[in-house]
C-alpha cells in the first residue's frame, strides 16, 4: 500500500510539472526553439554619440564630487572608521602579531590597493572641480 501511495504522489507531481511546462510553451506563442531564441535576441545597437555629453556631465559633476569627497574622508579616517586605511593597517598589524601570515599577506594586498586609491581619487577630484568650473563658465554645458 505505501508503495502505491508513493507512486501516485510521484505521478501527480510529474503531471503537475508537465502541465506547467505545457502552459509555459503555450504562453511563449510557439514551442519551437527558434522562436524562443528569437524572442531573446539582443536589441539593435544604439546610435553613435553625437556630442561629448558635456551637459549631462555638468549635471552629474556635483554628485560625483560629493562621492569622491566621501570616499576620501573614509579612506583618511582613523582606526574607528570602517573602510579607512588606518583600520585596515590595524588589522594587518593584528594579523602579524597573532602569527597569521596568510591573513596578513591577504590584508596587506588590500591595504596596498586601498592606499593606491588615494592619489587616484585626489586627481579625479581635481578633474571634476575643473569640469565644474568649465560648466559654470558655459551655462552648464548647454552652449558651445
**Helix/strand structural class:** mainly alpha
The share of residues in helices is over 70%
Low-confidence segments, given as residue ranges, are none
Average of per-residue pLDDT values: 81
Radius of gyration: 29 Å
Q: Give me the count of strands.
A: 0
Per DSSP, the total helix count is 5
What are the main properties of this structure?
single chain; 144 residues; mainly alpha; 5 helices; 0% strand; flat
Question: Can you describe this structure?
Answer:
By secondary structure, the chain is mainly α. It contains five helices and no strands. Helix 3 packs antiparallel against helix 5 (101-137) and helix 4 packs antiparallel against helix 5. The longest helix has 37 residues, at 101-137. It is flat and about 60 Å long. The N and C termini lie far apart (86 Å). The relative contact order is 0.09. The model has no long low-confidence stretch (mean pLDDT 81).
List strands and helices in order, with pairings.
Layout: H1 2-27, H2 33-39, H3 54-75, H4 85-98, H5 101-137
In short:
The chain is 74% helix and 0% strand. It is mainly alpha-helical. Helix 3 (54-75) runs antiparallel to helix 5 (101-137) and helix 4 runs antiparallel to helix 5 (101-137).
